[in-house]
Amino acid sequence: MSSTGRRRAGIAGAVVGVASAGVAAAALAKRYAVGRIRLRPDLEAGEPFGELRGRPTTVTTSDGVSLYAEVDGRQDAPLTVVFCHGYTLNLDSWHYQRRDLGDSHSLVLWDQRSHGRSPRATPGDCTIDRLGDDLAEVLEALVPGPCVLVGHSMGGMTIMALAERYPELFGDRVRGVALISTSTGRLGEISLGLPALLSRAVHKVTPGTVSLLRRNGNLVDKGRQVGNDVAFLALRHLGFGDARNVSPTVVDFVESMIRSTPFEVIAEFYPALMSHDKLGALAVLDPVPTSIMVGDKDWLTPVEHSRAMAAALPGAHFIEVPASSHLVQLERPATVNDALRDLIKRVETDAEVLERAERVETDAEPVERVKHVETDGEETDR
């Protein structure tokens, strides 16, 4: 080899060496950062995430999908609370709500199609409207009486689809609604916490990128399995408003749910989420007590979207939860659970008032019409 060739080979080797050293250093720094986070005191370390179980059952939908569900809580309760989870999650995302509300209420939790323990659906049936149909069939099969619906993110959209497609259920079967970290639409316009120009660029390239990656979903999933530290750090900062103090155990729990959702499923539901538009369905919720909750640092379904929903439903209770982001039911469970208890109390109070009014109307004695003689001697009815 000539001196020039040896020099070029030496330069190339040095470049590769520096690059390899940089990658190794980045990986080491990442591992060091995650390790330090995990060494901090963690109050949730002993929490049995993913281990709380109810009575398992399935609901077979009209298009043949056997949805997985669990019935839990107090089965003699007059009111059932139905939980609808979000995109890439599963019914276990309601861990704290199941734990704290089950002693006093009947609970139904279900995995949306292609999520959790529910089987994969065909891509053409991964739509928000189809999720609304699924919820109607879950209510028909598992909820014998009045209920309160609670939806997080895509689960809130599912409830809006139910309202649009089955408005007759609201007021009679559905007595109350909680919409948590959700939106009526325009998700394709959100900033994602980025500068406007960069946000527009991201939205422009994301659909094509998602579609391209979907074709190699198995390879993407293999990469997700080995990228836990990166996923942990990203989720810690993007999914939670108080990243410095969020429990590493909670972050791991959420990351495991997201990782268990195949990338093909993520890609199949992505267009439905971006095209979701259910602002008109909110009017159906007007007769029933409604709570709207959102973290003040939510970048995925921003506060402005929840404020717009609250403006469309002036009777709703609007709660902006401080120092929290999209996973508010896991980050601030006490606040969310208190709001749900308040909603349930409002529903029960309304039901008691209605029941008393019906009882009074039923028990009222018929008024007997008698002749009354006025002082001038003329007879009148009374």
From TrEMBL:
InterPro entries: AB_hydrolase (IPR050471), AB_hydrolase_1 (IPR000073), AB_hydrolase_fold (IPR029058)
Coiled-coil residue spans: none
Organismal lineage: Bacteria, Bacillati, Actinomycetota, Actinomycetes, Streptosporangiales
Biased composition (Basic and acidic residues): 360-375
SUPFAM superfamilies per the UniProt record, alphabetical: alpha/beta-Hydrolases
Gene3D superfamilies: alpha/beta hydrolase
GO molecular function: catalytic activity
Residue segments, region Disordered: 360-382
Pfam families reported for this sequence: Abhydrolase_1
Species this chain originates from: Streptosporangium becharense
Domain AB hydrolase-1: 80-333
Name of the protein in question: Pimeloyl-ACP methyl ester carboxylesterase
